[in-house]
Amino acid sequence: MSKVKGSRAERELFHMLWNEGHAVVRSAGSGSTTKPAPDLLTSNGFKTMAIECKSIKGKKKYFDHTEILQLNLFANTFGAEAWLGLRFDNVGWFFIESKHIVKSKGESLLLTLDYMRKKGLTFDELIGKYEQKKLNL
Amino acid sequence: MSKVKGSRAERELFHMLWNEGHAVVRSAGSGSTTKPAPDLLTSNGFKTMAIECKSIKGKKKYFDHTEILQLNLFANTFGAEAWLGLRFDNVGWFFIESKHIVKSKGESLLLTLDYMRKKGLTFDELIGKYEQKKLNL
User: Which chain B positions have a beta carbon within 8 Å of A30's beta carbon?
Assistant: First the structure.
């Protein structure tokens, strides 16, 4: 994923969240510090989420375990839920909470569009617009 | 205040907070969006603060009311406390919660070193290291 495209997806989600009444900051930290920093940090006063965003051209994406551990570290310290937001080209956004990701032995983790359709949440489900049927996996 | 100096103060506070176990993000938003964005957003899971930082050469600083209204708007939506952090050269940091700032009729608000020494909190008081004697003004 190019940096520009990732940043564009991040901005899109930023505005989607604001439009639904969730305050959001985009983090400036990822490059300039060794401290963990999620791409977006958002809350409406009830649900607080640290979100790592990815823009995906095909139908699958590998994640480094380190990236997810860093996200968890930040979220646990802040008191936020840790989420991955995947934007598939020509399909849209799916979200999964990091604690629902099945650990694997390797160094990276594979998330596919099929898997996200089955186990992930849509944006409306994420923000609780519709009943979150899929929250308890 | 120069942008560079403001940014340096912001980074200093960023590290001070992490060192005390508070997760912090620096916001990337201030320039690229019309949405309100505090300089820093921090929490240890109990106390969540949106902080606007200023680096001050002399003994006083004017704030735009708009800036404080934007800070309040963000903090209220996110569910955070709204704080101003003032770093006076050769003196150090003082903090005041925006709700404790006395409103004035003009377009800007004056905060002086004397006032902050009397009414503000030190960093240790802010993070609850010492009894927060001055919290109830």
Answer: none
Q: Each residue of A18-48: pLDDT tens digit?
A: 999 999 999 986 555 689 999 999 999 999 9
Where are chain A's structural domains? 3-126
Query: Does domain B3-126 bear CATH number 3.40.50.2000?
Result: no
Chain A touched by B27 (CB under 8 Å): yes
Confidence check: pLDDT of A17 > 70: yes
Q: Using the structure block, give the residue that is written with the tokens 């899929």.
A: A134
Nearest CA-CA distance, residue A118 and chain B, Å: 30
Identify the CA nearest to A26 among candidates B72, B37, B12: B37
pTM over 0.95: no
